[in-house]
Amino acid sequence: MNSRASSSKVSPPEVARIASELALAFDQLCIPSHDYAPVQATSFAGLDLRWYNRVTATLNGFGYRALGDMQKDVVVAAEYAPWFLRVVLSTDGTTPVLLSHIVLRHQLRLRNFFKTWVWDRGRHTILLSTEFSDGSFCETSTNPQLYDVAPGFMEQHLPATLSVHTVVLRHRQLITRYLRDKPDLKPLPLQGLQDVIASLNRAQARRAAERRARAAFSEAELWRLGHSPDLATALSAKMRQQNELVASKLT
User: Fold this and answer.
1) How far is CA 118 from each of CA 77, 103, 112, 136, 182, rounded to the nearest angstrom?
2) Are the CB atoms for 65 and 93 separated by under 8 Å?
3) What is the rounded distance in angstroms from the CA atom of residue 168 to the CA atom of residue 73?
């Protein structure tokens, strides 16, 4: 794990440079939708296919069904980084499960974005997402929390060491808590892969709108990404200053 640099050790020009790089990453998080396409697992080098198959088989035992493999086209810190996803759907069709073995290929070029969130062999991630009739979402992930929770979302981030059964159970418990005082709210049933993609993009659009409104990473987000608290404060302020300057030139 890299040490967290203090802003007192970073010159103002360097703060501005890092803030500009972070702004590129932040802009990508503000994209309202992502492109998804069917893909063969063999097209991705380094995937842990044994893990994919083992988790899929476990979910099949719970009555979940695999919908297929797809590629999510994203850009991370100005680097094109297609992600391989396997999609599995719950028996009642209300909870898609996304399996991902994240491999960050350009670690050196990502150094100012992910200060600590980098693994030599990638990270095995399970994401369960349930959309409701009012457009809100419950999500359970085995990824560490990086970003602030947007309005309309209830999230929990669990240790990656938990069993698949425990992760599924904890997601059901999250839904129960969320619906406790919302008797009229219903989970939205999904029929197939295209419905899942549409739901994922509705969640992305909702998060993107909130991010565009605040125009920069929060200090807490920068801290979670590995920057020291005082540097995070300086970077967040610089990002907002840069955005205000761009906005003033457009008016």
Assistant:
1) 13, 9, 12, 30, 39
2) no
3) 27
Domain extent at residue 35: 31-214
Residue that wins the pLDDT comparison between 171 and 119: 171
Tokens of 74: 């994203």
What's the domain count of the chain? 1
pLDDT digits 0-9 by tens, 70-97? 998 765 544 556 788 999 999 999 999 9
Residue written as tokens 């992600």? 83
- Mean pLDDT (the chain) is 84
Tell whether 241 is covered by a domain. no
176 within a domain of the structure (yes/no): yes
Task: Assess contact for 241 and 17: CB atoms under 8 A.
Answer: no
Q: Is residue 12 part of a domain?
A: no
Residue of higher predicted confidence among 103 and 161: 161
Establish if 249 belongs to a structural domain.
Answer: no
What pTM was estimated for this model as a whole? Answer: 0.85
d(CA 43, CA 235): 38
Residues 6+ apart with CB under 8 A from 11: none
Residue 197 near residue 98, CB atoms below 8 Å? no
